[in-house]
Amino acid sequence: MKHFFRKYYRDLFLGKRIFAGIGLCVSLFLFSFFLPWLGDLPYVFLGVLVLLVLIDFVLLYQTKRDVFLRRDVPDRLSNGDDNELQIYVENFYAFGIHVGIIDEIPFQFQKRDLWFKSNLKSGERKTIAYLLRPTKRGEYVFGQIRLYVQSPLRLVARRFNFGEEVTVPVYPSFLQLRKYELMAISNRLSDFGIKKIRRVGHSMEFDQVKNYVQGDDYRTVNWKATARKGELMVNSFTDEKAQHMYCIIDKSRAMKMPFEGLSLLDYAINASLVLSNVALVKQDKSGLITIAEKAGSIVPADRRPAQLGKIMEVLYKEKSRYLELNMEALYTSIRGTLRQRSLIVFFTNFESMSALNRQLPYLKRMAKYHLLLVVFFENTELKVITEKPVLDVEGIYIQTIATKFAYEKKLMVKELAKHGILSILTPPEKLTVNVVNRYLAIKAQQKI
């Protein structure tokens, strides 16, 4: 009896049709008390229903080779992006089946209604694709897949359990990274909103002497080479290479604020990963520093092939803290790590002018030795409040305060510019494009 329970009863479920049949059977027995002419019809109906249930049971359990199912999960998921997962299912029954699939996805997604339905003919294979968008880095555990199979009668369902628990890491947005990498290699960054920057002059790094082609600048003609060769030759210049670029990420409580599911820290991590990759494609040296109430991780600038992997491994583990940013520790780390003039892209956030003024002395010292670009965030929720129609006095008060905070953000940009510090005030969703734009502009203008 225990063996029967384990093998059959535990994975056997009643379908909607059997409940409808039982309801109809009960109704017939009830009406037979008042309508004697029904006779033995309720008993006949009950017998037919029981027989059909037995036939359905035999159909589902008659064969050893029934169905096959597999979940295809990537080795890692990309944070903040839509990741595609697939469920492959194959029918080995001699008849068509109706299937229902429950995938036990990680609890971080907070989805309890991931239910797929499909019909499969005998011998048919199907692949069901769906998207998951994680919003936190870390380890995600996928459970089993529950497959419910019904025969054409659809009176009972047999459950199959496939797979074991699988742990998949969620890394910073490498899907976005690949997208921008391909654009950088093919010089098509403008397809994603990256602007082409007009060059102020020529780079000082000489590349080669080449034949003149239509469109080359006449000012670059090499007259000595032209005289020797007997045809027009021009000097070719290239971007200066091996310049140092560091992304500094603030992990303090100012970066915990969420926008569209992602915290500001995650936006900064995704953008810094893309920026580091673009810098490496441009043959610059890229590095990383993280900071909170104390110095965090440091990856010295380099342009070796493994550099991006090192940066990604560090960013995967980073978490926001609950304490204030320690600018003194950051300044000490910069002075101890950066041995030459570098471009510093500092991802942080200021919600008020007083917050900026507390950090300004350290920012001025950093800008004295390096080219400093401060990246902070526009509060898009405040923007919504300022544009919303006001209906009462309380609404006027709230809108006035929101307008004041939004205006203070613009004042911060002017205050930083007054001290020779570059800055970007950006909505979180446009962070990556705006940062890459500014990096390319700085390269074109030869500011480093």
Please render the helix and strand layout as text.
Elements lengths: L1 H6 L4 E3 L1 H17 L8 H21 L5 E6 L4 E2 L4 E9 L5 E7 L11 E6 L4 E8 L5 E5 L2 E6 L5 E7 L3 E6 L2 H12 L19 E7 L11 H7 L3 E6 L5 E7 L7 E2 L2 E2 H18 L3 E7 L3 E8 L4 H11 L9 H11 L5 E5 L5 H17 L1 E7 L2 H8 L5 H26 L3 E5 L4 H14 L4
Parallel strand pairs: 3-11, 14-17, 14-19, 19-20, 20-21
Antiparallel strand pairs: 1-10, 2-4, 4-7, 5-6, 5-9, 8-11, 9-10, 12-13, 15-16, 17-18
Helix pairs in contact: 2-3, 4-6, 6-7, 6-12, 8-9, 10-11
Give a description of the structure.
- The protein is α/β, with parallel strands linked by helices and 448 residues long.
- It is 38% helix and 27% strand.
- It has twelve helices and 21 strands.
- It has helices spanning 2-7, 16-32, 41-61, 174-185, 223-229, 264-281, 307-317, 327-337, 353-369, 380-387, 393-418, 431-444, and strands spanning 12-14, 67-72, 77-78, 83-91, 97-103, 115-120, 125-132, 138-142, 145-150, 156-162, 166-171, 205-211, 233-238, 244-250, 258-259, 262-263, 285-291, 295-302, 343-347, 371-377, 422-426.
- The protein has a six-stranded mixed sheet with strand order 18-17-14-19-20-21, with helices on both faces. The chain has a five-stranded antiparallel sheet with strand order 1-10-9-5-6.
- The protein is elongated and about 110 Å long.
- The chain crosses the membrane at residues 12-35, 41-61.
- It holds the Pfam family DUF58.
- Residues 208-373 form the DUF58 domain.
